[in-house]
Design brief:
heterodimer, A: 194 residues, alpha/beta, six-stranded mixed beta sheet, 5 helices, B: 288 residues, seven-stranded mixed beta sheet
Chain lengths: 194, 288
């Protein structure tokens, strides 16, 4: 039997003014992804623990019933599942079918499970929303589109992002979140150890 | 205002467009398919640009809309009014004051800044379309990075005309990977595509494609070593503001061959005139 009762609190924590807050949230995500290394602040949603606020806002801005979602590790709990389902209606799926995936980097591994697009349609690739304990402009060196020279960003790993860049124009895209902060790392970025 | 959802489109549609824009940013120059909606204006009037702008607008934005560089033409005025009415955003004619600029066929003369978004209206997003009509084939050509046909086309220009005759919608290569149609901007504007401080997003409504060039991205106009790309313009100065470096429109003034050249960017020209610059046909300060 499937338990159809929602977790307490699943219906709370959404946007109070969806059109405006979605627009502002999207602009922040767009800024982050078009300027890798730049850290933006995302607020307005209150997702259940352990999902960070920034990941929750990104979910409300980007997910709907057409975007299969994979929740990994600790995020794959009843509270988060119900919150995502109630607010976005996104179907919950396994990693290989996901358009969006949420989780800690260690829980998302191996990231080769995720869709990287096809040569004809490189846009059919997954976006990974990574939960991190630390997000600041120190660590790996980033170069590429959107970056004036070089930028620095704390990454959970270097090798996987280098391997991902080698697949270009295929590859997954990454949004790193920590609390209410978010940074973007598109597949086009070249990553080097500091 | 209250009769419409913010920025006209429903939230589900905006989410779909926003996801396409993000994928476009992640793969610079690649045309992302999107489920273009019918808009309350005909295809060819900027429905792609309008949908991108609607998905990007926030209530705090200041919007500028230009058509061939001009803020005061029908297309620009009606799109500006559309967003004033459906999004309640502030509008401006000043390039420097705008946060989002929707454009048809020009890049403003005033250099763009970080944080600005330039939204292009695109009629035919596929640069290979007039060389290969089948979408299945052009898609495969992009996948294989097979752009020989484009170079043959440019070569035939040289063989027939002695020079590359393409003067607008001049093909470019983005980050050394995708060949992209920069929309029908004059090739004079092509150098501004590369290394721009602003994010550039392209929307083709009828053809249902969105693509993007992030800031500080390498955009190279295709050419040959012995026939290098040249950003050309009419060899005149503006007759109103005297600028000899801006892109000019030729205006026929009578039936006996009379003509004048004026800046196509009206904000740029008005700004220069306000600063005291005068051209061949504009009234001099002391004459008034």
């Amino acid at each position: 039997m499937t338990d159809t009762t929602l977790s307490p609190g699943a219906m709370a924590g959404g946007f109070a003014d969806a059109p405006t807050q979605s627009a502002e949230g999207f602009r922040a995500i767009l800024l982050a992804l078009s300027r890798p290394g730049q850290i933006v602040s995302l607020t307005g949603a209150v997702p259940p623990a352990p999902m960070p606020v920034a990941a929750g806002v990104a979910a409300l801005v980007l997910l709907d019933n057409t975007t299969p979602v994979h929740l990994a590790g600790a995020l794959d709990c009843a509270a988060v599942r119900d919150w995502i389902t109630f607010h976005t209606a996104a179907p919950l799926v396994c990693a290989s079918e996901a358009v969006f995936a949420f989780g800690r980097w260690s829980d998302l591994a191996p990231v080769s499970r995720f869709a990287i697009g096809t040569p004809d349609y490189p846009d059919r690739a997954a976006t990974l929303v990574v939960v991190t304990d630390r997000l600041d402009d120190a660590g790996a060196t980033l170069r590429g589109p959107g970056i004036d020279g070089a930028a620095r960003l704390s990454l959970p790993e270097i090798a996987a992002f280098r391997a991902n860049r080698a697949l270009f124009p295929l590859g997954f895209d990454t949004l790193l979140t920590c609390g209410d902060r978010l940074a973007g790392l598109p597949r086009s970025t070249r990553v080097e150890a500091a | 205002m209250s009769d419409y959802n913010f920025a006209y489109l429903d939230e589900q549609t905006k989410r779909m467009i926003r996801r396409a824009i993000l994928k476009g940013v992640a793969v610079p120059g690649y045309q992302v398919p999107f489920a273009s909606r019918e808009m309350p204006m005909p295809y060819g009037w900027g429905t792609g640009g309008v949908q991108v702008t609607a998905a990007c607008l926030t209530p705090g934005d200041t919007l500028k809309v230009i058509d061939q560089g001009a803020d005061d033409t029908t297309n620009a005025v009606s799109i500006r009014k559309f967003f004033q009415r459906t999004a309640g955003v502030a509008v401006t004619e000043s390039t420097a004051a705008a946060t989002i600029i929707q454009t048809r066929h020009r890049i403003p003369e005033t250099p763009l800044t970080e944080g600005q978004i330039l939204v292009y209206q695109v009629p035919i997003p596929e640069p290979l379309r007039f060389l290969e009509p089948r979408e299945t084939e052009t898609r495969r050509m992009h996948a294989l990075e097979d752009y020989g046909l484009m170079h043959v086309k440019l070569y035939e220009d040289i063989a027939r005309n002695g020079a590359i005759a393409t003067s607008y919608a001049y093909p470019v290569k983005v980050e050394g990977r995708y060949v992209m149609d920069p929309s029908p901007i004059p090739k004079f504007d092509n150098p501004k595509l590369s290394g721009s401080r602003a994010l550039q997003v392209f929307g083709a409504g009828r053809e249902q494609r969105i693509y993007a060039v992030p800031p500080y991205t390498d955009v190279v106009s295709l050419d040959f070593e012995d026939h290098p790309f040249e950003a050309s313009k009419a060899p005149h100065a503006c007759d109103l503001c005297g600028d000899d470096a801006s892109y000019l429109d030729e205006v026929i003034t009578d039936d006996s061959g009379g003509r004048m050249f004026v800046c196509s960017d009206t904000d740029h020209c008005a700004g220069r005139q306000a600063a005291g610059h005068r051209g061949r046909l504009s009234p001099q300060e002391d004459a008034a």
